[in-house]
Design goal:
The structure holds 2 protein chains of 2 kinds.
Chain A: E1 3-14, E2 17-28, E3 32-37, H1 43-51, E4 58-63, H2 72-77, E5 79-82, H3 94-104, H4 110-118, H5 134-146, E6 152-156, H6 164-179, E7 183-187, H7 191-197, E8 200-205, E9 208-213, H8 215-221, E10 226-232, H9 240-250, E11 258-259, E12 264-269, H10 274-283, E13 288-294, H11 298-310
Parallel strand pairs in A: 3-7, 3-8, 5-6, 6-7
Antiparallel strand pairs in A: 1-2, 1-4, 8-9, 10-12, 10-13, 11-12
Helix pairs in contact in A: 3-4
Chain B: H1 21-36, H2 39-62, H3 67-104, H4 106-111, H5 117-151, H6 156-183, H7 187-215, H8 221-230, H9 233-244, H10 256-263, H11 265-292
Helix pairs in contact in B: 1-5, 2-3, 2-5, 3-5, 3-6, 3-7, 3-9, 5-6, 5-11, 6-7, 6-9, 6-11, 7-8, 9-11
Chain lengths: ~300, ~300
């Protein structure tokens, strides 16, 4: 698949401090990619390098095959950006603000009303931005980022300042924009949002971006397993004690069920072993009323990455 | 809806690659709208208008001086207002423009738009110039009306020249302020630098010039003062206004030679040329430094 964004061995140092250290990254067209990391891990500097706001000491950034050096203005037209720290011109209305950005991008003013309506500011477009709430400003920020319908949308902490309904609205919008063909690159501290929205995740640590992959790839890379909990019927239909005691003898390398209090069984296994595990219960005549699978989430992956870095 | 297709786009004015007047004027219009609605500019305009009205009202009525003499007295009073207040407000507004946007975060959004850094710098300069000029002309309008009522229309040309020189002073200090704003990393730093420049050029410079002149050989005083004059735009405006009003005598006998040098046509053109350099040079440097920044 064609890469919309390619970062090649990008580095940026401030004095002796390497904010971004030889980062390689490829984002295919149509992907939703999330960048994670502690504060100070280098996310903001990497985003600034991708946006052309910071000159990398080494390496390069290509957006749809173009560098900022080759054609700064055309490259900027491909990107929409919502910063984490958002500020507009307090004395301008939302309409005037969007018309200003549209004009710079060569977009007809007639598009502005539709864009403001799209982000839910249709009724407040003639109010001054200074009177806007944080959430409304965030929506205005999104409007300026999408007014030219960019191929790559970069959102830095996009849920900041949004109330819960705003967050839900934004997630829907991100999915819709992505479905319409826009590649989304966003940074976030909310692991739940990231897990829910993204195709791939990158975790930055100390300026390096060594951990990149889909959830399944990262679960496998870090050997994280699913937890399967089963509520066995009463009576269980077979001798649970015997089953638990003998199962490891049947396949010493396979995962084993452990009996918790009462008639509950629990197993830690690979994702592909869940079906086999449930089947093995039925084969041994153990019936169950309910089961629950706890997949290793992004929080577990993040913890693993960070504990690996600490060691 | 396909996001990446079919968005109507206006033809890019002047092309996308080079300096685009359309984009620069968009920044200027935005800057003017934003500043002209700001309460600080409105407060400045009101205070400036009130002070100008008081000076002109007192000058024309209270002292029993009508006609040309009264006009000169009022203009001299307004000149002091202009020389202190306009550089200060220009430096404060200009210095906080780019540095303020950087600190607030809106500069990052602006810089990710398809726009050249020079278009931003010049657009901001043009927008702020227009809003400050509007505020200054409003203040001078009322004062001019009172003076016209007191002395008739015989001094219209002198008054227009005086107002134009005041506008030039605004442009010079705005240009300096934009340069400061580009160089400073924070709004507070930019404001501090701006006030330092005001203090140095408006309050301290004349004492320093007099001190240097008093230590110089007699023959070198006039060329030295002329040279020092060229390095202070506020003093150049002061000299040009006084010459326009025919008040050369205020320079005193010691500076008669300096008066002769600057009062003839070439001397005045030299000062006007120097003022234009004072507008263009800081702005050009601001464009240069802003364009060469490695990190925004």
């Amino acid at each position: 698949m064609e890469n919309i964004l390619r970062v090649e061995r990008a580095s940026k140092t401030y004095g002796a401090y390497a904010a971004v250290n030889e980062v390689d990254l490829e984002i295919p067209r149509g992907e939703i990619f999330a960048l994670l990391g502690h504060n100070g891990a280098g996310k903001s500097t990497l985003i600034k390098i991708i946006l052309g706001l910071a000159q990398p000491g080494a390496g390069s950034v290509l957006i749809e095959g173009c560098t900022y050096r080759q054609n700064r203005l055309e490259t900027r037209m491909k990107v929409g950006y919502l910063p984490e720290r958002l500020s507009f011109y307090d004395n301008l209305t939302a309409w005037e603000t969007i018309c200003f950005y549209a004009k710079l991008k060569g977009i007809n003013e007639s598009q502005c009303e539709a864009v403001l309506a799209e982000v839910g500011l249709g009724d407040a477009m003639h109010k001054r931005v200074g009177a806007y709430s944080k959430g409304m400003q965030q929506r205005l920020g999104l409007a300026q980022a999408i007014v030219h319908r960019p191929s790559l949308l970069i959102l830095d902490e996009p849920t900041t300042g949004l109330d819960p309904s705003g967050v839900l609205w934004l997630k829907e919008k991100i999915r819709a924009w992505n479905k319409a063909g826009t590649t989304i690159f966003f940074s976030s501290h909310n692991l739940g949002d990231v897990e829910e929205l993204t195709h791939r995740v990158g975790i930055m640590c100390k300026g390096r971006l060594d951990v990149v992959g889909t959830m399944a790839e990262l679960q496998k890379q870090y050997g994280l397993k699913a937890i399967l909990r089963v509520m066995v019927t009463e009576p269980p239909g077979a001798d649970l004690e015997m089953f638990v005691a003998t199962q490891s003898q049947q396949d010493p390398r396979g995962p084993v069920w452990i009996r918790e209090e009462g008639n509950r069984l629990v197993m830690t296994c690979e994702a592909h072993e869940k079906g086999w595990a449930l089947e093995s219960l039925l084969e041994h005549g153990i019936r169950f009323t309910d089961f629950r699978v706890e997949e290793p989430g992004l929080d577990a992956i993040y913890r693993e990455v960070m504990s690996g870095e600490a060691n | 809806m396909d996001h990446n297709q079919g968005t109507p786009r206006e033809p890019a004015v002047g092309g996308r690659a080079g300096f685009c007047w359309g984009r620069m004027l968009s920044v200027a219009k935005k800057e003017m709208l934003d500043s002209i609605r700001s309460r600080w500019l409105i407060i400045f305009a009101v205070v400036f208008a009130i002070l100008a009205l008081i000076i002109s009202g007192l000058g024309m009525s209270g002292l029993g001086l009508a006609g040309y003499e009264g006009f000169n007295r009022v203009t001299a009073g307004l000149l002091n207002l202009v020389l202190y207040l306009l550089p200060l407000i220009s430096l404060v507004m200009g210095a906080s423009s780019i540095a303020g946007e950087r600190e607030g975060g809106s500069l990052h959004v602006l810089l990710t738009q398809p726009i050249h850094t020079s278009e931003i710098v010049i657009g901001k300069f043009v927008g702020l110039s227009l809003s400050l000029t509007t505020a200054v002309l409003t203040g001078f309008g009322g004062a001019g009306l009172i003076m016209a009522l007191g002395s008739g229309l015989m001094n219209v040309k002198d008054y227009v020249v005086f107002v134009l020189l005041a506008v030039v002073l605004v442009l010079v200090f705005l240009s300096l302020a934009i340069l400061i704003s580009v160089l400073a990393s924070k709004r507070s730093q930019a404001l501090g630098l701006g006030i330092f420049v005001w203090f140095a050029l408006i309050l301290v410079y004349d004492f320093m010039a007099i001190g240097v002149a008093s230590l110089s050989a007699a023959g070198a005083v006039v060329p030295l003062l002329l040279l020092l004059l060229l390095f202070n735009p506020a003093d150049m405006v002061r000299v040009l206004v006084i010459l326009q009003l025919g008040g050369e005598a205020t320079f005193g006998p010691t500076l008669a030679a300096l008066t002769r040098t600057v009062s003839h046509g070439a001397g005045q053109w030299l000062l006007l040329g120097a003022l234009l350099v004072w507008i263009a040079a800081p702005l050009a440097l601001a464009c240069l430094f802003f364009g060469r920044k490695q990190d925004y």
